[in-house]
Design goal:
21 helices; single chain; 2-enoyl-CoA Hydratase, Chain A, domain 1; Pdz3 Domain; about 20% strand; 21 strands; 6-stranded antiparallel β-sheet; 6-stranded mixed β-sheet; 4 domains; about 525 residues; disordered N terminus; alpha+beta
């Protein structure tokens, strides 16, 4: 083995060892011996192994397997994937600025991003991209990856797309200059009634605080006095962003969260100046998909008795990751601490049985009945904590809601899953809009007029069911009957999302949303609301 190769291995490993363990602990693990041992192994493999191997790939696999032994959330990101992995949290990427869907092997424009490059040149919802830079952009070879590889690119570069638009015999060519495109983390913000607002956040990204404050200001102008903050399915994001948004609910000086690890001293994050929503009734919605940063918000709100938590037990991710760059540009996201709620709860669920079992937790919750019955959840007394008012809460595996809402297995059943998985729902909506887009826009020029006046007819819903049967989805009248209203509203919501704005989807659906209905019930009853926030 050449000395240069040995040196590259040493340079690769030593910075990681120093950064992770700190100067005081290097001698304890005998870092020099560890590096020498691994370097020797690679030398032997490279010089004596029976077959030719890619030592670089072997090293990457060793890193991945090593991190897998630590905990479920430490992760390795190859250099070529670093920028892409940061996009959703950084809040932007560079490209043409549109949302799309592959429909019948064709790129269908769902909507151009307002003010983005595609919007500026005149591309509209319902357009179909047939060519990209003169190349065919349809057929079985077209995948989501293909589309992103060809439409995304550096700011200032040009791409030419050929558009088919219904009513035009020839393709329309558009020259699009790529630009920086924002990725919104806020899905929806609207009024549920005359004094209660609703904000749904899908992750805690770099710009989420700004998005939240803009939404809160808008809703206040519409009369918001109470807020339903929806974190269902929000898998987390930046710790700092979670802290800042929680700060909007809590008074100055109140502890939001603290972190601590073997090699990291306790660090406390506290609320600061006046927030956007420190008074008024607050409900936070969570479920088994709410993790990490979502649990910081829910835990702090619950521990200070600031609001009522509604839904099901959250995911249970209480580990803090910090990115460390390796010499080749790749990144290790290493768990460096656990976070704790103000009452001292560590929300991280156990991972003693390994990563694979850890991610089967939701299946186990289903099997044990936890998704359907609150009394199926058992916490030991050793994990008992108290909120500010003296209410009992528990640590050791997620935030348990104050009001339990079981998983709706009538609506979200196997039939519904089949309709979604086989593309029946989206397929019907796309075909419906292809035939009726202009008529709908003329008849319902705004979302409010659409939401008040539009309903699928019985005949149109029958066409939807016929489409499902033609795709070999079998069902009886007894199976479809309990789901009819929900499916019709779901189709209406998807049509609204395509015609107007993405957040309109949630506004159409909310009258049938069990958790939101319960939130309004609690908010509208002063005695009930206060009862959940006091010692019982």
């Amino acid at each position: 083995m050449k000395k240069s190769f040995q040196l590259s291995i040493l340079l690769f490993l030593l910075p990681t060892t120093i950064v992770v363990f700190g100067q005081n602990n290097i001698t304890n693990i005998n870092a020099d011996e560890t590096v020498k041992k691994y370097s020797t192994l690679l030398y032997l493999i490279n010089n004596y192994y029976v077959d030719t191997l890619n030592v670089s790939d072997l090293t990457e696999k060793a890193i991945v397997l090593t991190l897998k032994e630590l905990d479920p959330h430490s992760a390795y990101i190859p250099e070529k994937e670093v920028s892409k992995s940061n996009e959703t949290l950084e809040g932007s990427f560079e490209g043409v600025g549109l949302t799309f869907q592959l429909f019948k092997d064709t790129i269908l424009v769902i909507a151009p991003i307002p003010g983005g490059p595609s919007d500026n040149v005149g591309i509209i919802a319902g357009d179909k991209i047939i060519t990209v830079d003169g190349k065919n952009a349809f057929g079985k070879q077209i995948t989501n990856t293909w589309v992103m590889d060809h439409l995304r690119g550096n700011k200032g570069t040009q791409v030419v797309v050929g558009i088919y638009r219904k009513g035009n015999k020839k393709l329309i060519e558009y020259e699009i200059i790529r630009d920086k495109i924002p990725i919104n983390s806020l899905d929806a913000a609207f009024m549920l009634n005359e004094n209660t607002g609703y904000i749904k956040l899908n992750r805690f990204a770099k710009e989420s605080l700004t998005e939240f404050n803009e939404a809160a200001t808008m809703l206040k102008e519409q009369g918001m006095q109470n807020l339903v903050f929806d974190l269902r399915g929000n898998s987390g994001g930046y710790l700092g962003t979670a802290m800042s948004i929680t700060d909007e609910f809590l008074q100055d000086g109140k502890l939001i969260v603290y972190t601590q690890g073997t090699h990291q001293d306790r660090q406390e994050l506290q609320a600061t100046t006046m927030g956007e929503f420190e008074t008024g009734k607050l409900v936070v919605l969570i479920n088994e998909g709410s993790a990490s940063a979502s649990e910081i918000v829910a835990g702090a709100v619950q521990d200070w008795d600031r609001g009522v938590i509604i839904g099901r037990r959250s995911f249970g991710k209480g580990l803090v990751q910090r990115p460390f760059q390796l010499p080749d540009g790749s990144v290790v996201r290493l768990t460096v601490a656990r976070y704790y709620t103000p009452s001292g709860r560590c929300i991280q669920k156990p991972y003693d049985d390994g990563v694979d079992e850890y991610y089967k937790d939701f299946v186990k919750r289903m099997e044990h009945g936890e998704a359907f019955h609150a009394d199926s959840i058992h916490f030991p007394d050793s994990l008992k904590y108290k909120t500010k008012s003296g209410r009992t809460v528990y640590g050791g595996g997620g935030v348990m809601s104050d009001i339990f809402i079981p998983l709706d297995t009538i609506r979200y059943n196997d039939l519904y899953s089949s309709l979604i998985r086989k593309g029946i729902v989206n397929g019907y909506v796309n075909e419906y809009l292809d035939d009726n887009r202009n008529t709908l826009k003329n008849e319902y020029p705004t979302f409010d007029t659409f939401n008040e006046g539009f309903y699928l007819s019985v005949d149109e819903f029958s066409e939807f069911l016929t489409k499902a049967k033609n795709e070999d989805i079998e069902f009886t009248e007894d199976e479809i009957s309990p789901n009819t209203e929900f499916l019709m509203i779901q189709l209406k919501a998807l049509i609204a999302r395509n015609l107007y704005e993405g957040g309109d989807y949630f506004e159409v659906l909310f009258p049938l949303d069990t958790e939101i209905i319960k939130a309004l019930e609690v908010i509208n009853n002063d005695e009930l609301y206060l009862n959940f926030l006091s010692k019982q």
